[in-house]
Amino acid sequence: MADEKPILTMPDDPTDVGKSPEFDGTQTVWVEKADATHDHDADYAAAVHAHTGVYAPVVHTHTAGSVSFTSAGGIGATDVQAALVELDTEKATVTALNAHLADGTDAHAATAVGFTPAAGVAAVTVQAAIEEVAGGVTAHLGDTTAAHAASAVAFTPAGTIAATDVQAAVVEVASEAAAALAAHSADSTAQHGITDFAVLEALAGKVKFGTGTPEGALAAPVGTMYLRADGGAGTVLYVKETGTGNTGWVAK
């Protein structure tokens, strides 16, 4: 047919590879371009598109070493070839990586492990965080004044004390002691197991205290005792043995 367009093909002759395609009206011819920087693949794609209306895929023949690479992420190479070689050289082997993951002793120095400040700890590495916490514990243990509030110290309920912290336990004991003392002071019947207060009162009347000799100075019934505060050997205790007046005292 008169309007049929020939199909553009890649060169069959190896010597034509790298040349630019041109359509001479009946067939595709491959022409050597004088410009060494000329993009032959682009010429071919343009010719195919002009002839068929379809863009043909362009096959690039650049080497990895001629493709530039911007150094990043610890890779210092500046072309793709060198970057791939650098990665291959520096990569960890599977064996080394598994050994690292299984190392429970010192796979990393604590100074190389990051720590996010939290709970009052300002350090940014594990090493510094441990030292910071340890320092706080040491200072706390050495504090002999107010390391803890009594309300922060736990207490196990025992006896009649129901409180669960030291502060509450002390308050509970103090309150109960005050109540018990008040009840004891108000008890006039059987304090300390003594039930016959008449005997105590009688004894109180039979014991006298003072300075100097009671003879001729203190009247008392027979059987009364006198304790002399300024007495000496044989003159501290006196007993009223006769009479009802102020005589009849005998030193013992």
Quick synopsis:
The chain is of the alpha+beta class and 252 residues long. It contains six helices and six strands.
Question: What can you see in these coordinates?
Answer:
This protein has about 250 residues and is an alpha+beta fold. Among the domains are: about 50 residues, no CATH class; about 35 residues, no CATH class; about 30 residues; about 55 residues, no CATH class. The protein is about 30% helix and about 10% strand. It is built from 6 helices and 6 strands. The strands form 2 sheets. Strands 3-4-5-6 form a 4-stranded mixed beta sheet. Strands 1-2 form a two-stranded antiparallel sheet. A hairpin with an 8-residue loop joins strand 5 and strand 6. The longest helix is centred in the last third of the chain and has 21 residues. It is rod-shaped. The termini are far apart. The mean pLDDT is about 80.
Nearest-angstrom radius of gyration? 57 Å
Number of helices: 6
Low-confidence parts: none
Q: What is the percentage of strand-forming residues? A: 5-15%
- Rounded to the nearest angstrom, the distance between the terminal CA atoms is 165 Å
- pLDDT averaged over residues: 79
Strand order of the largest sheet: 3-4-5-6
What structural class do the secondary elements suggest? Answer: alpha+beta
H/E series, N to C? EEHHHHHHEEEE
For the sheet with most strands, the description reads:
4 strands, mixed
Estimate the helix proportion, in percent: 25-40%
Number of strands: 6
